[in-house]
Amino acid sequence: MHRVLFNFILAMEGVFANQIRALLTALGIIFGVAAVIAMLAIGTGAKQSILEQMKLIGTHSLVIKSVVPKDNKDLGKGNNSNNNSNNKNKRPWSPGMTINDVNAIETVLPVVEHISPEIVLPVSIIQSGKMERAKCVGVTNAFFELNNLKVAQGNYFHQKHLSGGKPVCIIGKHIQTRFFPEEDPIGKKIKCRDNWLTIIGVLQKRNASEKSLKQLGIRDYNSDVYVPIETALLRFEDRAKITKDDLNQEEENGPKNKNYHQLDKLVIRVKDSKFLRASADVVGRILKRRHRNIVDYEIEIPELLLQQQQKTQDTFNFVLAVIAGISLLVGGIGIMNIMLASVLERIKEIGLRRSLGANQKDIVLQFLFEAVFISLTGGIIGVFVGLIAAKIISASADIPTVVSLWSVLLSFGVAASIGLIFGIVPAQRAAKLDPIKALRAE
C-alpha cells in the first residue's frame, strides 16, 4: 500500500508540474462529460414531461371534440342528400354531439371502460361580493376517474345528485383560494350565472405546466366549477334544443357559427391500448351515421400522439448521445496522445526510477494515476459545466431538463474508465523502456 501511495504522489507531482498541459488534456473530457450531463438532463426532462401529460389525460383514451364548421361547405362534407333550389343555401342539418351519442357508443362498443361527456360553459362566479370569470363544466363522476382528479375535501357527486338537476357543485383549488381563502367551503353556496350552487367537494390541486396543458388542449382543472351534467342541461343551457329552423333563421339574420352541440367533449377509455385505433374507427362510423354524414367532430388518440412525441425525443436523445460519445472519444485520444508525448519527454526520469529499484508495475501505476487523475478532474469540471448548460438550455429553449444523481455517477464512471483505458498504452510503453538506454537519452 505504501508503494502504491508513493507512486500516486509521484503522479500528482508530474501533473502539477505541467498544469497547463494537464488542463488542455482534460478539455476533451470536460466537454464530453458536460455533453453527457446535458443530454441525460434533456432526455429525463422530456420523459418526465410526457409522463406528466399522460397523467393529465389518463391512458387508453380517445378524445372526441365537437366542431362548429365555419361555413355550409364544411358542414356539408359527406352529405349526399339532394337539395332543391329553395333550400340550396341552407345549412345541412346535424344534431351535433349529444347524450344520445354517449348511449349509442356504450351500446355498440364492448371495450369501453369509462365514458365521460363534458359540457363547458363560460360563467361569472359571485360569492361574498367577489366576482370572477370561470368555466362551469357539466360532468359525471367518470370525468374525475379518467383525469385522475382526487377530492381533497368533501365528496364526489352522489347518485342522487346526478339526476333531477340538483344545484350542487365541486370546485377546483383555485376557486377555493379565491373565494374561501380562510374557511371551509363545504356546504357553502356559490353563484354561477343565475344559479346558486351548494359546494359538496373541493378537488386536490393539480400541478401541471402551462405548456403541457396547451399541448394537450385541456383546461386548468384547478380553475373550474363542476356540476352534474343534467344540472348543466336543466339549469344552465341545453344547446340540443336548437333546431334546424333556428340555424337557418340565424344564417339569414347574420350569425352563422352558433354552437349547436349539446356536448363539447367526450372522453372514452378502452380496456386495452390495442383497441385504441379500432375503437376510434368504430366511434367515427357511429358518429358519422348519427350526424347524417356530417363530420362535425374530431377524434384524437392522445396516448399515440405522446408515443410519437416520445419516439421523436428518443431520436433527438440518440443524436445527442452520439455527439457526447464522440466528444469523450476525442478526449480519450487526447489523453493518450499527451501521455505518450509525456513518456518521450520523461525517458530519463523513467530510467532513473528503474535504476533506483522501481519495477515495471511502479511505472505503469505512476502513468495510470496521472491519466485517471486528469480524466476525473475533467469529469468534475464537466459535471458543473453540464449543470450550467442544462439550466441555460431550459431557460433559453424552453425545454424541461432534470439532472439526476445517476447521470452524475455515470459521468464519473465514464471519465474514470476513459482515463484507465486510454492511459494503459502509454503506461505500458513507459514501463517497457530499457533503463540503461533511458539513462543515456538526452
How would you summarize what this structure contains?
By secondary structure, this protein is α+β, with helices and mostly antiparallel strands.
The number of distinct helices, counting runs of at least 4 residues, comes to 15
Main sheet overview: 6 strands, mixed, barrel
Q: Which sequence of SSEs, written as H and E, runs from N to C?
A: HHEHHEEHEEHEEHEHHEHEHHHHH
Beta-sheet strand percentage?
15-25%
What is the 3D form?
elongated
From the alpha-carbon coordinates, what is the Rg to the nearest angstrom? Answer: 34 Å
Query: What proportion of the residues is helical, as a percent range?
Result: 55-70%
Order of strands, main sheet, comes to: 2-3-8-5-7-6
Q: N- to C-terminal separation?
A: 34 Å
> SS-based structural class?
alpha+beta
Number of domains: 2
Runs in which pLDDT lies below 50 for 5 or more consecutive residues are: 72-88
> What is the tally of beta strands?
10
Q: Summarize model confidence as the mean pLDDT.
A: 78
Describe the overall structure.
By secondary structure, the protein is of the alpha+beta class. The protein folds into two domains: 2-52 and 308-440, no CATH class; 59-302, no CATH class. It is built from 15 helices and ten strands. The chain has helices spanning 2-16, 19-57, 72-75, 99-108, 141-146, 173-179, 210-216, 229-236, 244-253, 276-290, 302-345, 347-355, 360-397, 405-431, 435-440, and strands at 61-66, 112-127, 130-139, 151-154, 168-171, 189-192, 195-203, 224-228, 265-270, 297-300. A six-stranded mixed β-barrel has the order 2-3-8-5-7-6. Helix 1 (2-16) packs across helix 13 (360-397), helix 2 packs antiparallel against helix 14 and helix 11 packs antiparallel against helix 13 (360-397). The longest helix has 44 residues, at 302-345. The protein is elongated. The two termini are 34 Å apart. Mean pLDDT is 78; it is low at 72-88.
